[in-house]
Write a structure and sequence with these properties.
Elements (H helix, E strand, L loop, with lengths): L6 H16 L5 H13 L2 H16 L11 H4 L12 H13 L16 E3 L6 E4 L5 E4 L4 E6 L4 E13 L8 E5 L2 E5 L2 E7 L5 E8 L1 E5 L9 E3 L3 E5 L13 E2 L2 H7 L6 E8 H9 L5 E4 L2 H4 L2 E7 L3 H11 L3 E5 L2 E5 L10
Parallel strand pairs: 5-6, 15-18
Antiparallel strand pairs: 1-4, 2-3, 3-5, 4-5, 5-8, 6-7, 7-10, 8-9, 9-12, 10-11, 12-13, 14-16, 17-18
Length: 341
């Protein structure tokens, strides 16, 4: 790298590479050029991480499908004069809170075999020594073990998004619940929550899924971009039928909204939304009306603002809201009449 290149030049190059990486996989020539740039100056990797973080924050301006209007996500200066439908009102009200962005963003270089974790409400960007990155969602943990043969990351708990740099000699492998997800270069999310089966979503590149034990098949299941796969628990060394599910780009964007510190809903029930918020905050949302709990919700909301979400729900569904300690209680039941003594 030329000695005359300034920090501003490096930042501009990092922005250019971030935009190019966001468009899809690099060609072999582009990958060689990228690796040469990244290795040419010790400032390059830090500049790239800053550019990637800014890129993720700027994605909040994108529409989340045909039912989402980015203009509606902006916090208005005054209430809209026309009445809104329930779906429109939730999307509009949630957008004002969405500007909170990432709850936390931290960078650190793990040693071989190191365990990296996040606390409730924390989102952490972890750069790996090969140029790959892992974005850990709330209450998540991974173990990183690199050697000459492979780049191995074990998802111990929670949710992580992997942006894998190309290395033809060492595959990138994510181990989770006795399964192995293998790729040379891809962008994909893996989620492992306590009561749910493992959920894999590939947004870029291709990921091969196989078992990790002696019964592992010779050929794994290949997942292309914009594909989701639910991995059922293995039974007697075998797995139930696994059917990859194609997703629209808009659905992928909604699924990955947590990378910007947001939660995107498109028809989920209020109870499902309340359960999603519980992963990010000690403030619980309690819905004490079964009919209200089944109401569908659509919108984009800041993951660390359950109170703001609850206020939107109370306004749209004519519910009552009450703060009780660490809980926000929603109910639509009519108050009891006071009888004469």
């Amino acid at each position: 790298m030329a000695e005359s290149e300034t920090s501003r030049d490096i930042d501009q190059a990092a922005s250019d590479w971030t935009a190019r990486l966001d468009r899809g996989l690099l060609t072999p020539d582009e990958e060689d050029a990228f690796q040469a740039w990244a290795a040419g100056d010790p400032r390059c990797k830090g500049a790239l991480l800053r550019a990637q973080a800014l890129s993720m924050m700027s994605e909040s301006a994108q529409a989340l499908g045909a039912g989402f209007d980015p203009v509606a996500f902006a916090a208005p200066k005054r209430p809209r004069p026309a009445p809104l439908s329930r779906r429109q009102a939730l999307a509009w009200t949630g957008g004002a809170a969405a500007a909170a962005g990432l709850t936390a963003l931290a960078i650190g270089l793990p040693a071989a075999g190191a365990v990296i974790r996040t606390e409730r409400g924390e989102i952490r960007l972890v750069p790996l020594k090969d140029g790959s990155t892992v974005l850990l969602n709330t209450q998540s943990s991974i173990r990183v073990r690199y050697d000459a043969g492979q780049r191995l990351v074990t998802l111990l708990q929670g949710e992580a998004y992997f942006s894998v740099a190309r290395d033809e000699k060492r595959p990138f492998v994510v181990a989770v619940n006795g399964r192995r997800l293998r790729t040379a270069q891809a962008g994909f999310r893996v989620r492992k929550l306590d009561r749910d089966p493992v959920d894999v979503l590939v947004s870029q590149g291709q990921v091969e899924v196989s078992s990790s034990g002696p019964m592992a098949p010779t050929n794994g299941l290949a997942l292309p971009a914009n594909t989701r796969l639910i991995l059922p628990d293995a039974v007697d060394g075998r797995s139930a039928a696994e059917r990859p599910q194609p997703l629209t780009p808009e659905a992928v964007t909604r699924e990955l909204a947590w990378r910007e510190g947001k939660l995107a809903f498109e028809g989920e029930t209020l109870q499902q939304a309340a359960d999603a918020f519980a992963r990010y905050s000690d403030t619980r949302i309690e819905i004490r009306d079964s009919g209200l709990a089944r109401e569908p919700v659509t919108g984009l909301f800041a993951a660390n603002d359950p109170a703001g979400f609850s206020r939107a729900v109370a306004h749209v569904f004519n519910a009552r809201l009450e703060q009780q300690g660490d809980a926000v209680v929603l109910t639509r039941s009519a108050p009891r009449a006071t009888g004469a003594q």
